[in-house]
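#structure-requests
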Amino acid sequence: MHLDYLRVAGGGLRISHGTRSRVFPRPFAATVCAVTAVDTLPPSDGRPELLVLRAIKLGDLLVAVPALRALRRAFPEHRITLATTAWLAPVVELVPEVDVHLAQHGLDHPISAPAGAVDVAVNLHGAGPESSDLVAALGARRVIGHADPTNGFEGPAWPDAVHERERWTRLLAWHGLAADPDDVGIARPVAPPVVADVAVVHVGAFHGARHWPTDRFAAVVRGLRDRGFDVVLTGGADDVERAAAVAGAAGLAPGAILAGVLGLQEFAGVIAAARLVVTVDTGAAHLASAYGIPSVVVFGPAPPEAWGPPAAGPHVVLTDASVRRGDVFAEDPDPALLAVGPGDVLEAVDALGVTVTDAPTPR
């Protein structure tokens, strides 16, 4: 078997801590403004309007953060409105570059903004006719997007083989705006985390193609506990049964199961306060990147070259590209995911060099 073991940590990260109990010892220096999704663009506050279209899921939002930060630097006097999925509001609130969150229900509905109200429109959603037509309907003075001759938009051609963060920063660069694809940071939640200084094992994913087997997660949990980590299991409401199976096989108490319990911002807070994150390629991986938390990410159908963490961060990517099927909507796990075993993950954890100074005697 050819296993791609991509160490992308810039020398690793050494962490020590003084308590292993589930308390809130780590203060957050967060600058968060309350941003609630609105259904219609609010009246002008006197600033010119810049509207960004990016209406997908959590990971898609987070890979667009470098572009959002660059837009704020380039247009400091504009009000920035992000038209994106309504349920992402708790995380949009953690992106201080965004002033207004405009709920966008996919591409089947127009952007709810009066024609002519937008000064600059930015298409960070795609380059197809659906998103391009929505942007064109805004009647903005300036449009930043990929080339669209039908609507008369100038821009670069859509690149295929490029990282998603770089796709959008390259787009801005073509339009004369400097952007750094590794500028991924977001604010930490103001509220204390539900739990801190733990290893977060995220067992969930939207589709079966990313479902790493529960017995492998359980083996990783046992290995982490042997290394002295407290472990919690996270996931969405649909992942509760998977989390329970992992906990049962690993001997974790029910209180360690946070799957289906946390709100989106609470989830971000737990990741931000974690000592380590082990996950497949999901929003949990992108949050670990955003907060610089050491992570081991198992990739299946999606290539890490397009969706992986920043090269300078304390992250390890595991996959086997030679057997990747590449169907992200498949019901069964991708072979590239199944090529990775628990031992590979634990070896990667050791390579990151994350330490627990007051670990109990290994079992």
